[in-house]
Amino acid sequence: MNYPVTSPGIVILAGGQSKRLGSPKQLLQVDGTTLLERTVAAAQELGNGTVVVVLGAHAELILPEVSQAGIEVILNPNWQEGMAASLRAGIRHIESHHPQMDGILFLVCDQPFLQADLLMELINLQASADLPVAACRYGDRLGTPALFHHSVFSQLLDLKGDTGARKLLEGMADQVAVLDFEKGIYDIDTREDYERLLTYKNNL
Fold it and tell me: What CA dihedral angle connects 138, 142, 146 and 152, to 10 degrees?
């Protein structure tokens, strides 16, 4: 079977509560812009025209960050379940509003070193490898950004809880094209993570 993703939608998962951080990580500032703004900018730079942001917790605070033209914002009412609920919400939105899309590129908003060229490299890798999934590797794990061919949507829709797609990626590793993203390991779950990031960037 061939797995060409010629028209991917981009879904940014930004519905988390940031419980360990104590404030919405989506709004943390790095180099003068919020983490969510940085992620949206990278997605828009690809120029495919369809960027969907899934909100949940703190939606009323975050909404002004994604009010610019060209962004589709949806609310995940089941955000308390965890990442899987936002994944499902994003897929269902793409399927119902953009049925011509033959894949989805999933992003999260707490990877401050994410750039558009990495996303394009991931899309090109999936096409050349002819595999249903392309995902990034950092440390010893696979994760976002990750591109899924529509043939995998049913498996994503079966996910539950706060595991996101990582468990699925591990289970189908032989069908995943892997792109190393060393700085993907810098994500932000706690205030200490954020302070570490700022220190690192100040020392560059």
Answer: 170
Q: Which two tokens stand for residue 181?
A: 């993203």
Within a domain: 13: yes
* Domain assignment present for 176: yes
Domain residues for the domain of 193 are: 8-202
* 90 found inside a domain: yes
Write out pLDDT tens, residues 41-91.
999 999 877 999 999 999 999 998 887 767 999 999 999 998 999 999 999
Query: Residue 35 falls within a domain, yes or no?
Result: yes
Give the span between the Cα atoms of 16 and 13, in whole angstroms.
Answer: 8
For residue 21, the domain's CATH number is 3.90.550.10
Q: Under 8 Å CB-to-CB from 190, ≥6 apart: which residues?
A: 20, 21
Nearest to 103 by CA among 80, 133, 128: 133
Dihedral through CA 158, CA 77, CA 64, CA 40, nearest 10?
0
